């Protein structure tokens, strides 16, 4: 089945633009949340404000590592793979493995806090 290269290129361009926009939005919104928690939260919130701030920090860190990794997801049958193109930011295999691990740990940290 032939593939239209122009369509695939357009989809990849939209995906890259969405990654950069979502990173910027994450930094702005989570930064605003952290600012509001630090300056406007009442004492009655107690330790809940630290939980909310940790979610915001992990959201920023996850967005940053997601921007660096720019994963391509591949699902085949019961398997799921995240693929990273090393040439995007010039990473070697060992640094790419570290960054992929950091990306997963930031995501799982938010899940474990719940």
Automatic annotation (TrEMBL):
Pfam families documented for this protein: 7TM_GPCR_Str (PF10326)
One term under GO cellular component: plasma membrane
Keywords: Membrane, Transmembrane, Transmembrane helix
Any GO BP: olfactory behavior
TM stretches of this protein: 20-38, 50-69, 75-92
Keyword Membrane: yes
GO molecular function, one term: G protein-coupled olfactory receptor activity
Keyword Transmembrane: yes
Record's protein name: Uncharacterized protein
Source organism per UniProt: Caenorhabditis auriculariae
